[in-house]
Automatic annotation (TrEMBL):
Top-level taxon: Bacteria
Organismal lineage: Bacteria, Bacillati, Bacillota, Bacilli, Bacillales
Sorted UniProt keywords: Membrane, Transmembrane, Transmembrane helix
TM helices/strands, residue ranges: 6-25
Stated name of the protein: Swarming motility protein SwrB
Annotated InterPro entries: DUF6115
One family name in Pfam for this protein: DUF6115
Keyword Transmembrane helix appears in the UniProt entry: yes
Length: 160
């Protein structure tokens, strides 16, 4: 009777170790997946930042291109008054090129485009909670600021 009980206990212990090994391998797989996702998120953030910087540079070049003909046409002495006709020096007979003066709406659009800023994407509660925690606020203060439950904030901070 005792030997049967010992054999059953031994088998249960082996089964327990087997299940612990399986759980350990699953946890390590999830940890690796989480690391890959974090790496992917940082790469995406970097590429979006580079893309936005490139767009900003292109926009600034466009503004320079749009504003440079305006400045050159207004300071050019070869322009006939109020006609928008520019005479270019050519060895052959004089060639006239008509340039349309920019209209007021275009100037207003250019001015508003220069003053416009890239809108900041609103943060979600998850990133706000992490930011507030990094600033030194307690979980209770974060929960009050975000109007969330204390347990929810603790989970957010635990599973950063």
């Amino acid at each position: 009777m005792i030997w049967t009980l010992l054999i059953i206990l031994f088998l249960l212990q082996i089964i327990g170790f087997y299940f612990m090994a399986i759980l350990y391998t699953k946890i390590t797989k999830f940890d690796d997946l989480e690391k890959k996702q974090r790496k992917l998120m940082t790469e995406m953030d970097d590429s979006i930042g580079a893309y936005l910087a490139e767009i900003k540079d292109e926009n600034e070049r466009l503004i320079e291109r749009l504003s440079s003909p305006l400045n050159e046409a207004s300071t050019n002495d070869d322009t006939l008054p109020d006609t928008g006709i520019v005479k270019l020096p050519v060895s052959e007979p004089a060639v006239e090129i008509r340039m349309n003066k920019p209209t007021t709406p275009m100037r207003k659009a250019l001015k508003s485009y220069k003053t416009a800023a890239i809108p900041k994407v609103p943060e979600d509660d998850h990133s706000k909670a992490i930011q507030l925690h990094d600033e030194g606020l307690t979980t209770e203060e974060i929960a009050k600021k975000l109007d969330k439950g204390l347990t929810e904030v603790e989970l957010i901070l635990k599973f950063r």
